[in-house]
Amino acid sequence: MRRITIFDTTLRDGEQAPGATLAPEQKIVIARQLAKLGVDVIEPGFPISSPGDFAAVQQISRELQGVEICGFARAVKADIDAAVQATQDAQRRRLHMFLSSSNIHLDFQLRKTREQVVALAREMVAYGRQFVGELEFSPMDATRTGDEFLFEVIEAVIEEGATIINIPDTVGYALPEEYGAMFTRVMKSVRGADRVRFSAHCHNDLGLAVANSLAAIKAGVSQVEVTVNGVGERAGNCSLEELVMALDTRKSAMGAETGVRPEHIFATSQMVSRAMSFPIAFNKPIVGRNAFQHEAGIHQDGLLKNRSTYEIMDPESLGIPRSMIILGKHSGRHAIKHRVSELGVELDAEQMESFYNAFKELADRQKVVHDHQLLELVGAAVNRMLEPFTLVSTQLVTGNAGHRVASCTIRNEETGSEKVYTGTGEGPVEAVVAGIKQALPFEAEFADLELYSLSSGEEASGEAIVTVRANGQTYRGVSAQRDILMAAAHAFMAACNQAARDERQRKIPAQGNGAAEEVEITIP
């Protein structure tokens, strides 16, 4: 297998996406995670662009000694000096320099002739090469440059000491067969091509960034430049998780592999999404909410028999903590019965019929039936409440000054008692959560909140997804309501109820022959 170098530019090209700006401390945290993920090269920023970017690149260079750090620069001496200085403490480093090469860029952006561009490329590569052992050069907008001038520029920088040639599809214009063929021509025609490594950098304007990068690998490149979640300018860059898993899943067909550790992909994706405040599309491959979830009854039936019937990857191996079965109006009896049994309840034929009819009525009114709603329906069928706790009501006092105060009435379904708990916080969600926590017999950490709009207009509903950590485990609760604060509160309660149900699965002493024997029991 050929080993493909994964060059991550989430913190440079990814951060150039409108609204994706990261604070220096956020960059450092993400860089640590990227190193844990197993990327080979990190491009932490554009040192000349701001003091904050310079400081972040410098700190990352000092701290992450096990990964190559790349300083980014235009073909300008001041840029090169800043990149060299910011990365000087790195154990392994390189300089990445770029200069436009297409006619449209030369005419309207650089306002230089081809001769001037070649001379500038030579001068700046020679200048930068004296500071670093590895120098990567990118002829920007290469896919709209034309072979003759592209070959001339590449030959010139190789002569001056460039060690890596990155040929970018800067505006996402190329088709896969065109992009792969371009590398083939360059490697065959350019003098000195056998002395350098080649790299691909693809943008996603036509949705072809991953396909183009795979075509480049087929053509012989040994490095691909990627970003987590595919973030970046305009429609973004080649997605790290999609490229890595395409190579991993189709390893025999591609004849290539990476050093990325898949079990850290999901956590890295979530970290970048939160830091940039960029939600991940539900249908995003690999890390999207629906990537490993199934609602169609035929698919669910196949999955319950053998997961490989409808899944080509194992979500657990990617660190994705999600159930494969999503219950909705397309779900069949087999999947519904299976999910109910997972919740610790067995229904007889009459109860199942009553429950199934109620389920279908609810599924027709909303897109997805969540676990806490499922338990309510099952409880109605067996005539008892199955959730350990019920959030009966919530009163909230809020405003634009001072702390928010929440009064939460919670019923303990095991004892039947109701109590009122008061919580305070700087925000309304914090206040409600503080109130609910007081009713729980265990410590629960509010780990994450996702909010989504389900419709538009004044009667719009919002969906809240809350992640809770308790007893070393992670639980997710979901609720959809017109009041997004109540949606968050009920989602938190749903997650906590999952933790409470796990708490009830414990060992207790059972009397037998005068001796205590430990047995495992489950109390629904």
Automatic annotation (TrEMBL):
Pfam families: HCS_D2 (PF22617), HMGL-like (PF00682), LeuA_dimer (PF08502). It comes from the Bacteria. Pathway: Amino-acid biosynthesis; L-leucine biosynthesis; L-leucine from 3-methyl-2-oxobutanoate: step 1/4. Keywords: Acyltransferase, Amino-acid biosynthesis, Branched-chain amino acid biosynthesis, Leucine biosynthesis, Manganese, Metal-binding, Transferase. GO terms for molecular function: 2-isopropylmalate synthase activity; metal ion binding. Its EC number is 2.3.3.13. GO terms for biological process: L-leucine biosynthetic process. InterPro entries: 2-IPM_HCS-like (IPR050073), 2-isopropylmalate_synth_dimer (IPR013709), AIPM/Hcit_synth_CS (IPR002034), Aldolase_TIM (IPR013785), LeuA/HCS_post-cat (IPR054691), LeuA_allosteric_dom_sf (IPR036230), LeuA_bact_synth (IPR005671), PYR_CT (IPR000891). Residues 4-266 form the Pyruvate carboxyltransferase domain. Belongs to the alpha-IPM synthase/homocitrate synthase family. LeuA type 1 subfamily. This is 2-isopropylmalate synthase. It comes from Paenibacillus validus.
